[in-house]
């Protein structure tokens, strides 16, 4: 009776990378395998011949199939890092993107008061507001979103990170009390729902 060939990290990653169509297929595969096994991406390079259990291999294959079908990695993992903060994500909001960190950098460079009042319109996951809150604990930061699911998600992220953030449901200023802010930031969805790019990669 012949035994089944061993399943190694490198073999699984190589095979998955050949099927995933994205700008970074190897990275996608490593993130998914790390999520399933609990192993770091560094360990995949240091010990490529490490064997993977059949259960982990099957779970990994299930995620790879979803990735091949176009589901974003962040949705498969359930989280996305932004400004070094681990944020929970869901299909109800757009996925925080690295280029949005430029907005955070610009905001932090402004000559604002030590106890500035800041508003984030259309907060989504709360990424921008929470990034600012992590840098300036003295700022009074508020955020709003028209979608109740986004409001709940931003609140959940704030609690998980232990950051002070007030989040309310409001379509722009319509549900907000009149108030003067030192800074208003926003990075609303700017791609039409009909744009084909929303069906590609992680632009969701």
Automatic annotation (TrEMBL):
- Pfam family membership, one: PrmC_N
Origin: domain of life: Bacteria
Q: Name one GO biological process term.
A: methylation
Query: What keywords appear on the UniProt entry?
Result: Methyltransferase, S-adenosyl-L-methionine, Transferase
**Quick check: keyword Protease in the entry?**
no
- Report the residue ranges that make up the Methyltransferase small domain in this protein: 110-193
Any idea where the Release factor glutamine methyltransferase N-terminal domain is?
A: 12-78
Name the chain's protein: peptide chain release factor N(5)-glutamine methyltransferase
Q: What class of enzyme is it?
A: transferase
Q: Which organism is it from?
A: Marinobacter adhaerens
Keyword DNA-binding carried by entry: no
